[in-house]
Amino acid sequence: MLVFSLWVSWYTYLLLVWMHEVPDLSNKAGNGIRRLDRYDQLATYVLGRRRGRAVLLPFQLIVLLGVAITYTVVGGDSLRAFALFVNPNLAMGQWSFYLIFGAVQLLLSLLPSFNELSIVSLLGAIMSVAYCIIAVAMSARVHPDKATMNYAPELVERTPIERTMGIFNAITTVLFAYGGHNVALEIQATLPINAQHQSSVPRMEKGVHITFVVTAAAYFLVAILGFYAFGTSVADNVLLTFAHGPTSWVVAMADMFVVVHVAAGYQVYINPVFTMCEASLRKRTQTGTVHPVAQTLLRMALVVGVTVVGLLIPFFGSLMGLFGAIAITPTTFLLPPLLWILYKQPHKWGTEWMVNWFLVIITGIMGVLGTIGALYGIIKASATYRIFAP
User: Fold this and answer.
1) 27 within 8 A of 200, measured Cβ to Cβ
2) Residue 18: what pLDDT?
3) Least enclosed by CB within 10 Å: which of 94, 150, 212, 234?
4) What are the φ/ψ torsions at residue 281 (nearest 5 degrees)?
5) pLDDT per residue over 4-34, tens digit each?
6) Which of 5-14, 185-194, 293-302 has the lowest mean pLDDT?
7) With contact defined as beta carbons under 8 Å apart, do 127 and 257 qualify?
8) What pTM value is reported for the model?
């Protein structure tokens, strides 16, 4: 599943990169090329304005807000783990750390443009790599007792329905890991076009290849070594398994890396939502502008809403599965090949045509099954969850 999701993610990301620049003979200033700088622009170009927005916008909003909600949960949990390392007797409830993380996002959300987040995004990427290095190194140091270690999921005591729902949820949890396609075109749009670089595609392709190689290496090493070290008892966040012992300070440092990483990633995903909402407001004003106060209140309201949802549903594994199923799977795995088929119109029953239709169908089925599994997990976990528990 890791290999399949990596290949599909890599391929569909490149499809978006290749569709960023499309022919437009009326655009003389752009040498007959039109650049589609947002996912919704691509969808409306291929499907038409009304149909394109209706097909993409709901999924895109769920992805962007869903990732922000998930990052709120991850950030709050990691912040709490670090605080407990500093003070094991800390009396603050888990919910308070979600609020702290949300407050940090309120401040970051006041940055006026996506480009000003470049340093924050770079810092987040560095922290992500550092976190993975620590997780790999810590797992590699473990010498599991082969006589007692369980590597067989079927030996874990579960009812048939729990096992089936767990498989469904696991599929889309893995798919969630590669959910960056929704901001691919926005990122590509930041690449300058000039006399030296008349197209952004070659540079973006190079960046995509490097990114996926690094990401795949990190994901595979963490997954394989984490499972080797702890078997079926490994936690959703492998670092939580190292929370106690002589190396707990390393884990605490990694927890802060995670906090910085998700804090930066949160802004990358929430900013397109700000842009869409502010554009909608501009259309409703006579001046065509949004007052700075209204813009600030809008951003604050969105961040507060995300924080509240994260506070109500802080189930990391199930959230990843749910948002991976209902939104990331369609926008990352299903829509790019479908848009490519409609845009390029490859030869029917040819290799390109069959590969892309295969992805549309199989990932659609995965999305449905994953949604069922994730909802089951959330309902089951919420039965014993208390928001303001210490």
Assistant:
1) no
2) 93
3) 150
4) -65, -40
5) 888 888 999 999 999 998 877 555 555 667 8
6) 185-194
7) yes
8) 0.76
Label residues 81-120 b or e (16+ Cβ within 10 Å = b): bbbbbeeeeeeeebbbbbbbbbeebeebbeeeebeebeeb
Which residues share a beta bridge with 23? Answer: 33
Name every residue whose Cβ is closer than 8 Å to that of residue 277 and which is 6 or more positions away in sequence: 298, 302
Predicted pLDDT of residue 373: 80
Dihedrals φ, ψ of 156, to 5°?
A: -75, 135
Task: Report in angstroms the alpha-carbon separations of 88 from 73, 244, 287, 336.
Answer: 21, 11, 55, 48
Q: Is 288 exposed, middle or buried (0-12, 13-18, 19+ CB in 10 A)?
A: exposed
Q: What is the 3-state secondary structure (H, E, C) of 6-18?
A: HHHHHHHHHHHHH
Backbone angles phi, psi at 34, to 5 degrees: -110, 135
DSSP 347: P
- Report pLDDT digits (tens) over 142-155: 777 777 777 777 66
Rounded to whole angstroms, the Cα distance separating 331 from 177 reads 13
SS3 190: coil
What is the CB-side half-sphere exposure of residue 174 using CA atoms within 13 A? 20
List Cα–Cα distances, 182 to 2, 59, 97, 177, 339, in angstroms. 20, 10, 28, 13, 14
Crossing angle of helices 248-283 and 94-108, in 10° steps, is 50
User: Which residues, 6+ apart, have CB-to-CB distance to 177 below 8 Å?
Assistant: 5, 219
Tens of pLDDT, residues 267-285: 888 888 888 888 888 888 7
